[in-house]
């Protein structure tokens, strides 16, 4: 029997750990149940941190962890999924193709930045969506020091006033001063079509965010969108043109395109609709998890967000349940009633809220310490020691805050 897991993000990593954990508990061997993880690189990109400088350091190796728990790594990109034949075709790094049959498939392909057809976006826009994107932005910012001192050089426009946009924008003044010198006076502007900053956060946390933006001198243009980019900067839907050498696009994400090959219903973000066990109901043998799945967190109407907090726990449930079906064990319905947000606000600290109503619990330096612990400890892979790695993937305990 074989489980194939596609992806190397948080959901895929925990799906591998959790399926191996149940296999170990049942006393089954890798010959009884082979677990295979397919990804271009055996590396976890710590995507929630890509708004920070030196993004090339924000990765964690997975190969030793996978070896420790007897999960087979196949290097390559999953290009075709045939759900009738139960097979995945992989384009391997050496230019060849390999077909992997599966008994259970876990789609953990994550998400990617939504890039609409905005004139000039492809040519002149930056992002912090992928490691390559973040590295390109970091190099661009470093290169600004060689340019003549102008207002445009020192101006950054961030398109998107959600979590990613706010974290990128509030980190930017310090990043620019590190490049241009302490005397530099960077100008950072957030643009968002919503009438309020951080529209998903609600009214409670918003004053904290607004105060942080004022403290950092970050401007906002709300109720307007980006009409186009050019070499000189950005034009807004209001007609205003902002001279800026740097435009960062942070306006929404969508499930990775591979989900389109699964013949099942998807939501407006491209996520596969799943049941409480994270199965894709209309396709036998297929589970979806993380940013590839729209999953109910509870019985009162809350759904998992496209975040590593939800992806890690969803991955653990999906991996456990895929293995459970093959090993004759009962499945565990996914649930994630505890929900927190910890929003980095650059030199203004951070904001920590709890619950779906986002009650503010910590702000400033206290919240910043928690954010740094999350970013540098909690979200990294476990050590490559078998017992500890498997224990970390108990689906009932993962990200239990």
UniProtKB/TrEMBL annotation:
Q: A Gene Ontology molecular-function term?
A: NADH dehydrogenase activity
Known SUPFAM superfamilies for this protein? FAD/NAD(P)-binding domain
Q: Extract the InterPro entries matched here.
A: FAD/NAD-bd_sf, FAD/NAD-binding_dom, NDH-2
Q: Which residues form the FAD/NAD(P)-binding domain?
A: 1-315
Keywords tagged on the record: FAD, Flavoprotein, NAD, Oxidoreductase
Asked if the keyword DNA-binding belongs to this entry, the reply reads: no
Q: Fetch the Gene3D superfamilies from UniProt.
A: 3.50.50.100
- Record has NAD as a keyword: yes
A Pfam cross-reference name: Pyr_redox_2
Protein family per UniProt: Belongs to the NADH dehydrogenase family.
Q: Which PANTHER family match?
A: NADH DEHYDROGENASE, NADH DEHYDROGENASE-LIKE PROTEIN RV1812C
- Write the protein's name: Pyridine nucleotide-disulfide oxidoreductase
Q: Which species is listed as the source?
A: Chelatococcus reniformis
């Amino acid at each position: 029997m074989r489980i194939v897991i596609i992806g190397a993000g948080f959901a895929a990593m925990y799906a591998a750990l959790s399926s191996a954990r149940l296999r170990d508990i049942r006393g089954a061997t890798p010959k009884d149940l082979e677990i295979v993880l397919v990804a271009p690189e055996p590396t976890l990109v710590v995507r929630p941190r890509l708004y920070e400088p030196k993004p090339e350091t924000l990765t964690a190796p997975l190969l030793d962890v996978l070896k420790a728990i007897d999960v087979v790594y196949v290097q390559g990109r999953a290009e075709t999924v045939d759900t009738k034949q139960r097979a995945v075709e992989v384009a391997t790094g050496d230019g060849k193709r390999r077909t992997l049959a599966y008994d259970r498939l876990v789609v953990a392909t994550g998400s990617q930045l939504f890039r609409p057809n905005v004139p000039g976006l492809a040519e002149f826009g930056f992002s912090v969506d992928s490691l390559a994107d973040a590295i390109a932005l970091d190099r661009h910012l470093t290169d600004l020091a060689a340019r003549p001192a102008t207002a445009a050089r020192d101006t950054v426009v961030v398109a998107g006033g959600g979590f990613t946009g706010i974290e990128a924008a509030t980190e930017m003044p310090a990043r620019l001063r590190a490049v241009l010198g302490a005397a530099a006076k960077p100008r950072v502007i957030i643009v968002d079509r919503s009438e309020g900053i951080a529209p998903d956060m609600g009214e409670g946390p918003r004053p904290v965010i607004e105060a942080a933006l004022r403290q950092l001198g970050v401007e906002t243009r709300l109720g307007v969108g980006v009409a186009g980019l050019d070499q000189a900067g950005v034009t807004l839907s209001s007609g205003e043109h902002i001279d800026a050498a740097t435009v960062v696009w942070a306006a929404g994400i969508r499930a990775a395109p591979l989900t389109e090959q699964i013949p099942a219903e998807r939501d407006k973000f491209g996520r596969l609709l799943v049941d409480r066990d994270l199965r894709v109901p209309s396709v036998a043998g297929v589970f979806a998890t993380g940013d590839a799945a729209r999953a109910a967190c509870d019985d009162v109407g809350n759904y998992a967000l496209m975040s590593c907090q939800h992806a890690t726990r969803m991955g653990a449930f999906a991996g456990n349940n895929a293995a459970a079906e093959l090993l004759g064990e009962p499945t565990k319905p996914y649930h994630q009633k505890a929900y927190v947000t910890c929003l980095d606000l650059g030199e203004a600290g951070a904001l920590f809220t709890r619950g779906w109503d986002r009650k503010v619990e910590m702000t400033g330096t206290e919240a910043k310490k928690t954010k740094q612990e999350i970013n540098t400890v909690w979200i990294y892979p476990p050590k490559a020691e078998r017992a500890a790695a498997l224990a970390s993937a108990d689906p009932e305990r993962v990200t239990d805050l």
